[in-house]
Design goal:
By secondary structure, this protein is α+β, with helices and mostly antiparallel strands. The protein has 2 domains: about 110 residues, 2,3-Dihydroxybiphenyl 1,2-Dioxygenase, domain 1 (Roll); about 110 residues, Roll (2,3-Dihydroxybiphenyl 1,2-Dioxygenase, domain 1). The protein has 4 helices and 16 strands. The strands form 2 sheets. An 8-stranded mixed beta sheet has the order 2-3-4-1-5-8-7-6. The protein is globular, with a radius of gyration of 17 Å.
Length: about 240
């Protein structure tokens, strides 16, 4: 079972979806597709001459966050593999399904429609990673789950003990970072952008309505105009790796 493409979802409260979409289309230099879904809750961020890899979703309750869509030739095969590896089934929509990882992070199995071309780097940045924030008691199980489900991805410890990186083979546009939290709380997820120049990117994002939250070793935590947190990370936008 091979994952052909990956999508990062920006999940935000439905009432703030327009505000969120306006910000993220500006950040990624994309345009918004027509809305779809029963309540117009889904839209895709469309790049010019590449395949989309970011979507937005208005959620009916909660503050939102992020999640990953795995696009495959055989959705049923992915669902079976995920359930065998320890996932839970959340919802079945015939040609796609919602699942939950052992730590409780939602993700979707969706059909592949031939996507293969990554969007370009935009002003020295690329949205290329979904970071799953995992409580300590479930961290080892989460690492084992994703490493087993995505067996053809490179799975390795990150730059700090609390990180584990899952890097896809050539093809999928979005990779996964697992982060062990310092406290027991429900799993969640946020988006990471690889940035050649974090201060310059931060200034641009603040101009677009984002706000600064905190600074870490190789990253800066930001909050978008819809209230969702995300990170600007000091990684090579082309490769996704840390600078040597």
């Amino acid at each position: 079972m091979t994952v052909r493409w990956t999508y990062a979802f920006v999940d935000r409260p439905a009432a703030l979806l327009d505000r969120s979409a306006e910000f993220w289309t500006a950040v990624t230099d994309t345009r918004l597709s027509p809305p779809r879904g029963g309540n117009g809750e889904f839209a895709t961020l469309l790049p010019g001459a590449a395949d989309a890899c970011v979507k937005v979703q208005g959620v009916a309750s909660g503050t939102g966050g992020a999640h990953l869509d795995l696009a495959v030739d055989d959705v049923r095969a992915l669902v079976r593999s995920a359930l065998t590896a320890g996932a839970d089934a959340v919802a079945d929509h015939d040609d796609w399904a919602v699942l939950r990882s052992p730590a409780g992070q939602s993700f979707c199995a969706v059909p592949w429609h031939g996507e293969s071309v990554r969007p370009p780097v935009v002003r020295g940045t690329r949205l290329d990673q979904v970071c799953v924030d995992v409580p300590p008691s479930l961290y080892d199980a989460e690492v084992a789950f994703w490493s087993g489900l995505l067996a053809d991805w490179a799975s390795a410890p990150g730059s700090l003990p609390e990180f584990h990186v899952l890097k896809p083979p050539p093809g999928p546009a979005i990779r996964i970072l697992l982060q062990r939290l310092g406290e027991e709380r429900p799993a969640s997820a946020h988006l990471d952008l690889a940035c050649a120049d974090i201060p310059a990117t931060r200034a641009r994002h603040e101009h677009l309505g984002a706000s600064f939250v905190a600074a870490g070793r190789h990253w800066t935590v930001m909050r978008d105009p819809a209230g969702g947190t995300y990170c600007l990370t000091g990684r090579d936008p082309e490769t996704g790796g840390l600078p040597r």
